[in-house]
User: What shape does this take?
Amino acid sequence: MTGQDNGAVRRVLWAELLPWLLLIRCFRIALQVRWIIAGAAGMVLTLAGWALISWLFWSPGELGDSFHAARCPWLEAGRVVPDFYPLPADKRQAEGSSGETTPAAPPGPETRPAGQSALQGFLKEVLHWEHISAGWIVVARPFLWMFDRDIVFRDFVGLLLLGVWSLVVWTFFGGAINRGAVYELATQERLGLGRVIRFLKEKWLWYLAGPVIPLLGVLAVGVPVMVLGLFLRFSVGVVLAALFWPLALAAGFVLALLIVGLVLGWPLLWSGISAEGSDGYDAIGRAYNYTYQRPVHYLFYAVVAGVLGTLGWLLVASVVGAIVYMTYWAASWGGGLATVRELATPSAIGSVREFGAAVIRFWTQCVKLAGAGFLVSYFWTAAAGVYLLLRRDCDATELEEVYVEEEPEPLPAPTPSPGTESPAPASPPEAKPEEQE
Assistant: This one.
């Protein structure tokens, strides 16, 4: 027996030894078509609302290009996947109208091959941090800009509307992705889309109000400090304000706790609603508790999720870019390189040709929207995974525990009342002998 025991190979439970391996499954879940479509639709609606609100409050370029859509939001959403055409501009300019090519200089530090330069530019744009964190930016950026010291009241109102619009959009699309992801990560079973929609019908108000409640707390603490700031406009008021300045600093400490916890923890807030099926107050408490109680764990899980997401995004963007590239490359054999590149970029090429080129770019953007949808899908999937891990660390709750709503029971079939009997089916009349003949 001893020899047999020594030779036995025991199975290693990697999920118990390294629980953060749960985050590896996020990539596969984020690739589901339904979540990519939800993410892409949310991006288009967000940019459409941003463009309209920005048009009402600011002139183009006044607030930067973050909230302005120079083109159709459908086209803007796909810009996260950079253009990668088969003929770089520097090589096209080197070709004369007669088809003769100017001899190129030997490769050196400043003269890299055109393909290498284009590939490096593609990777540089793909790995931009704003692309990787797109799911966080589309909700958090308007609210963060509200705390800029140089904005005026008009900017504050406009940014508030931008943030509210983002919350409304992602309450449904982000909440759906998050609920489906946390359920699948916990149970390893795919949640039906109908059940996801029913869950959102019950909890959409808490998804929307969850981030707003801490902001109301910020407002409640910040207003007294603002009133104290009015005294700073007068010489005597400065002396009076100085007496209460320690209280103002204490209020600033509370404001910092509320804002930092909200900025870092609001993805956990929505994940708490998705995983526990509870109200927003419980989710807010969990989000702040997990953020401040396990900051190192949170940072580690966020870094792991970010690295895995970057690798996944590089793969998705490369596939999407390759699809667009190979399509233009194959078409260039028939239409010519210069013509294909002209149609691929907006330019004045005639009304009819421009209409056809716009349709071509529209379908191309449909493919590139898949990349934008993946970015958002992965963000909310990873947020669900990080929440489950932090819940395990803080509350010792198993990863498999998740809220499961009760299925509606089918209505019982109607039963006949007692004493009533259903009549027997009448037998067909017998044929008479004359009729039989």
